[in-house]
């Protein structure tokens, strides 16, 4: 039971940090809030978080399917190192950019805000590899056991971590708007450092 608290905290934190840098999803959540009202922004955020839960579920079952064969566990850890290395470089590169490009904004009506959130989250192809890498790491650390409660905690933590950031953008965007560049750089450096830590731990698991 104790490992469930660790699993929730670790997954929630990873989802939270991955959603913090200004991007397509959180900036559109803020735009919806400004143009259509905070309630509609929250509905949009729920749509995004619902898709994240679905994608995290797919990631779990991909990892579970592969891990049923003991021979591929080492390969999974190597795949995780590639994923973490990619994200470490990606977030470091994003932090080094002098300007934060403005994400593409979309028109959202109150009627379809939930489904627009679902759709925008669905086009983010990095989500499933990201959560697959986390799942492989958590499994190697003994934090997830591919049981019903473990899987439920993992996907809920991913969804709640994402929603908490989107909610902040929806409610507090006006206060954050003037600090976007510095906010983005700092959060990207933190994410890059987190990926390096996960990479080192995974390499340690492979060789020791």
UniProtKB/TrEMBL annotation:
<feature type="transmembrane region" description="Helical">
    <location>
        <begin position="41"/>
        <end position="66"/>
    </location>
</feature>
<dbReference type="InterPro" id="IPR001123">
    <property type="entry name" value="LeuE-type"/>
</dbReference>
<feature type="transmembrane region" description="Helical">
    <location>
        <begin position="72"/>
        <end position="93"/>
    </location>
</feature>
<dbReference type="Pfam" id="PF01810">
    <property type="entry name" value="LysE"/>
</dbReference>
<feature type="transmembrane region" description="Helical">
    <location>
        <begin position="151"/>
        <end position="169"/>
    </location>
</feature>
<keyword id="KW-1003">Cell membrane</keyword>
<keyword id="KW-0472">Membrane</keyword>
<feature type="transmembrane region" description="Helical">
    <location>
        <begin position="114"/>
        <end position="131"/>
    </location>
</feature>
<dbReference type="GO" id="GO:0005886">
    <property type="term" value="C:plasma membrane"/>
</dbReference>
<protein>
    <submittedName>
        <fullName>Lysine transporter LysE</fullName>
    </submittedName>
</protein>
<dbReference type="GO" id="GO:0006865">
    <property type="term" value="P:amino acid transport"/>
</dbReference>
<keyword id="KW-1133">Transmembrane helix</keyword>
<feature type="transmembrane region" description="Helical">
    <location>
        <begin position="6"/>
        <end position="29"/>
    </location>
</feature>
<feature type="transmembrane region" description="Helical">
    <location>
        <begin position="189"/>
        <end position="207"/>
    </location>
</feature>
<keyword id="KW-0812">Transmembrane</keyword>
């Amino acid at each position: 039971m104790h490992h469930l608290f660790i699993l929730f905290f670790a997954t929630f934190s990873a989802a939270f940090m991955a959603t913090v840098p200004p991007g397509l999803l959180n900036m559109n959540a803020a735009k919806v809030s400004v143009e259509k009202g905070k309630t509609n922004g929250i509905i949009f955020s729920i749509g995004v978080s619902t898709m994240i839960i679905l994608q995290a579920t797919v990631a779990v079952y991909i990892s579970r399917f592969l891990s049923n064969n003991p021979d591929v566990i080492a390969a999974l850890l190597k795949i995780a190192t590639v994923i973490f290395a990619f994200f470490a470089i990606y977030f470091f590169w994003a932090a080094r950019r002098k300007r934060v490009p403005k994400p593409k904004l979309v028109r959202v009506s109150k009627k379809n805000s939930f489904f627009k959130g679902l759709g925008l989250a669905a086009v983010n192809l990095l989500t499933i590899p990201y959560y697959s890498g986390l799942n492989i790491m958590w499994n190697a650390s003994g934090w997830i056991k591919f049981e019903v409660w473990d899987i439920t905690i993992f996907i809920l933590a991913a969804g709640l971590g994402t929603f908490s950031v989107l909610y902040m953008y929806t409610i507090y965007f006006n206060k954050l708007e003037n600090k976007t560049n510095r906010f983005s750089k700092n959060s990207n450096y933190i994410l890059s450092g987190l990926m390096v830590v996960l990479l080192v731990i995974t390499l340690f698991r492979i060789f020791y």
